[in-house]
Every structure is written in structure tokens, then in C-alpha cells.
Amino acid sequence: YVRIRVTNGRSAITLYIASLILLAIIPGILTATKEEMLLPPFCWLVVVAASGYRFSRLGILIPLALALFELTFVWPFAQNARAPVREAETISERVDLVTQFIRDPTSFPDTISSGDPSEEFGTGAPKVNIIRRFSVLKSIDMLIDADLKSGYTSIDRYLPVLVSFVPHALWPDRPEVITSNELGHKAGFPMADEDTETGIEIGSPALFFDLGGWLALGAYAVASFFLFFFITVRLIGKANSGIWSLVLLGTQAHQAVGQTPASLFATVFIFLEVFCFLVAILKAISYIGQTLISRPVSPGIERPR
User: Fold this and answer.
1) Are 168 and 174 in contact (CB under 8 A)?
2) Taking phi first (over 0 means left), then psi (-120 to 50 degrees means alpha), and beta for anything else, what does residue 212 get?
3) How far is CA 107 from CA 74, 100, 112, in A?
4) Which DSSP state fits 120?
5) Given 93, 152, 250, 300, which is the most exposed site by the fewest CB atoms within 10 A?
6) Alpha carbon distance 262, 270 (integer Å)
């Protein structure tokens, strides 16, 4: 973001920025985690797009290379090498497994092509191909169909979302908002009856429809997102005025689908908490630095006693 601003949009990458992105990817490679491998370059692309940067013909090769990296390495590696990499006890063993996968991917079991559609949700989700894995159209359709057949969910189960940001330490008896797992059971996802932990990715349109049908979908969606963006703009600012709102919107986009309905509001307050915490740390470091490090004094000026 700073690079684009100081160069008036002529440059969006430097060796330092590229090094930071690669450094941020390393933990994802050592744990075979798609999110940690894809999120750093994706965040860079989001900032580039929001800043109005225009790629040159040569620069277009960068997003194309990222897409190629995703298709040829990230997805197969995260699916097929996940178990052996995470079972490795030392970093050197994980590095050896990563090197082995790069040299010979066929030496690892192929879980992508052997995935069964019935395993699309729950513990079998890693076997599903990338298109179905990140699509919520089927889950939306399943919940809407269940609502039409068995009835809608009372708004009382959703109202605790408004206080979900209050920690249990301050409110031990805080009412719990409905979970995506509970909605998954209602929609008929292939999960065991005793499964109460598996998170189900259900798109927000189905959540609003679950409150009362098509009219509820429109009314609650407009009200909820208006409140969310109103809070964002008033407290943090617009995307074209700084980078902080991009961090919030990026966090929300990352969490909104796979988490509970509470994520829409909780993210705002979590972000503000982290922001205030970071500011407090930086201020503390500044004050400590000023105390421990004496300011330079010009020659001929006597220090105050």
C-alpha cells in the first residue's frame, strides 16, 4: 500500500515486499495449510486492486504465476501431503517431505481424485475438489429446501449475535447464537447425529432466508450489512482513505462463510480490540525507547540538570 502511494501507482512490488510474502507463506508450507499459503499473496492482490494499480503487460505475469502456483502446487500439496507433513515431529522432517513432494508428487496418496461426493462435508471435506470446496451454492440450496419443508428458525436463536462480542469472562451466562453445525443438521448434511463440532459453510443468504423466507432474506440482509458497514465506515474509515478498512473487510470476507452467524458483528469488535492492543504496544515501545535512549544534544548546549 505504501509502495503504491509513494510511487504514485507506478510500482506495487519490491524485493522487500516479495520477501515478506514468501516469508509469510513458509508456515503454511510446513503445515500443508491452504489458507496460510494463499492468504499472503491474496492480501497483496486485494490491496493492489483497492489502490487502483494497473498491471503492465509484464506485471500480468505475477497474478498468472500465483494462479499457476495454486493449481500445480498448493491444492495438490495441501490435500495429498497434509497427513504426513503434520505427523512429522521436526521441522527438518517436514522440509524433507516438502522436497519429496516437489520432486515426486506421485509418491503421495492421491486423495483428490478418490474423493466421494458424500464426503463433501465434515471430516471428509479435504477430499473434495477445490471448486466444490469453496462453493456454498449447494449448502444454501439445502438449507432453503429444509426451511420450505420443515419451517423457519425462530429469530430468538439468532438475536444473541448482537451480544456475541461480549466475552464469557464478563458474561458467563451469555446466550449462545445458533451455530452452523446446528443449521447443518437441519439442512440434512451427511453428519453423525452426535457430531456437534464440525463447522458447515453456509452462505449468508440461506441464513437470512432461515428467519422467514424471501422477505426476511431481503429485510435482514439489508439491515445487517447496513449496520456492519455503517460501523466500519464511522469507526475505521473508507477503503479509499486508508488501509485499515481493507484489513477489516478482508478479515470479514475470510470468516463470513465458514463461521457462525455471529462472525458478522463479532469481527468488528475483534478487529477494534486487536487494533487498540497494537496501538497500546507501539505506544509503550515508544515511551520505553524515549526513556532508555537519550536524545542527541547539539554541541555547545548544556544538558538540563
Assistant:
1) yes
2) left
3) 16, 8, 14
4) S
5) 300
6) 12
